[in-house]
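Field notebook, page 417. I keep forgetting to write these up properly, so this time I am using the form the group agreed on. The chain and the ligand, D-arabinaric acid, are recorded exactly as supplied. Prediction of the bound pose follows.
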Amino acid sequence: MPVQDLTQLRSMVERTVAAVPIMDVHTHLFSPSFGEMLLWGFDELVCYHYLIAETMRAINMPYEQYWAMSRKEQADLIWQTLFIDNSPYSEACRGVLTVLDKLGLDVASRDVNSYREYFKNVTVEEYVDRVFAVANLESVVMTNDPFDPTERIVWQQEIASDPRFLTALRIDPLLIAWERSYEQLAGWGYGVDRNLTAETLSEVRRFLSDWIKKINPVYMAVSLSADFVFPDESVQAKLIAECVLPVAREFNIPFALMIGVKRQVNPGLRVAGDGIGKADIKAVEYLCAHYPHNKFLVTMLARENQHELAVTARKFRNLHIFGCWWFLNNPSLIEEMTRMRFELLGLGVTPQHSDARVLDQVIYKWSHSREIIGRVLADKYCDIARTGWQVTEAEVRRDVQKLFGGGFREFLQLELG
Ligand code: RAT
Ligand code: ZN
C-alpha cells in the first residue's frame, strides 16, 4: 500500500489545528459584566506580571517606586526597558508583539500612542467579540473567587450571563489560609469555628454547595504549593477529604489541583513574586486511587514533574491532565511536554490552557501554542502514516476537537458513580 503523502498530511493537520475553535480551560478573564475585573488594552497587556518580573531585574529601581507609579507610567517603563533598551524576544515580550500584529497594528512603528489610540476607539463588548474572533475561541473558563470582595458584589447582583465565559470555583483562601477564612465564613452566616468540628465541616460543605448552586462552575480549583502532601494531619488535608471531595462528588464536578507554586519567594515583586518547586507526585496518586468516584484535573508547575504526572494519568481514568502552566508556557517546554504527553496518553490530555489575565493575551497564547501543538501532532500522524496507516481528514478533525476542548468536556460529563 502506498503511504499517504506526508507533506499533504502535515499541512492538513496544521490547517485543522489552526482552524479549531478552542475551549480555554483555565484563565483569569472575566465577562464584561464583571466591570473593571476584566483587564484589557495596551497598558494592561504590557503590565502583565511576567513582564514586571523581567523589567525589575533589568533596571535598578526599588520595587516600591514601581508600585507607586500609575498604570500608564508602569507601561511606559516596561516598554522602554524591555522593548526599546533591549530586544523583546522573551516569550512574554514576543506575546505583546504577536497581539499587536494580529490586531492589525503596525509593530514596526513602535508607536505606543497609536496603540493606545486603537483601544480608545472600541467598547469592551466589541473588543471581546474581536478577540474571540481573532483567537478563534469558543469559550473561556474564568477563575471565580468567592473570597474576593469585588467579585462577591458582582455575584450578589443579577448579572447578564455570557455563555462564552464559564465559571470555576476557586477556593485557595479556604484551603490555604483557614486561620483567616473561617472568620469570613462565620461573618457570612456559616456556623464555623477555627477547630474543624463536625458542625464546622458540615457548614463548609454547605458553603461550597451554595456557591456551586450560585455560579454553576465547571470545576472547583486550588493552586497548591510545591510541598503539598496528601493525606496528612493538616487542616488543608482534612478540608479536602471531608468537604471538597464529597461536595465535588455530589455535584459530579472535578477538583482541579494546580501544584508546584512557591509563593512569594520575592514579596517585593507582589503578584510577580511567586516561584516554583518540584512537588511529590504521591499526593496525586493517593487522591486518584483512594477517591475513585472523584474526578481530578491536574497541572503541575515543575518541568521535573511532567513525566511522572503523565504516567500517573495512564493509571487512572479519573485523572485528566491539562496545560503547560505559567513558567512552562514557553515554546521549547510546550513542545517537549506535548510530545511526551501525546506519546504516553494519545488523545487523553488537554495540552494547553492560556492562563490569560488580560483579554488580549489569549491572542498570542493560542497563536503560539496552536503552532507548536499542530507541529507535534503532524509529526505523530506522519509517524503512523509511514506504516501504511491512512488517516482521514474527518478523523484528524475529530482528534483536534478533542484536544482543544472536546476531551475536557467529555471528562466533565464522565459519571464515576
Ligand atoms: O499564571 C499566572 O498568572 C499565575 O500568577 C497564577 O495566576 C496561576 O496561574 C494560578 O492560577 O494560580
Ligand atoms: Zn492561573
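OBSERVATIONS:
- The pocket of zinc ion (ligand 2) is lined by residues 26, 28, 355 (CB under 6 Å).
- Residues 190 and 203 are 6 Å apart (CA to CA).
FOLLOW-UP: compare against the apo run.
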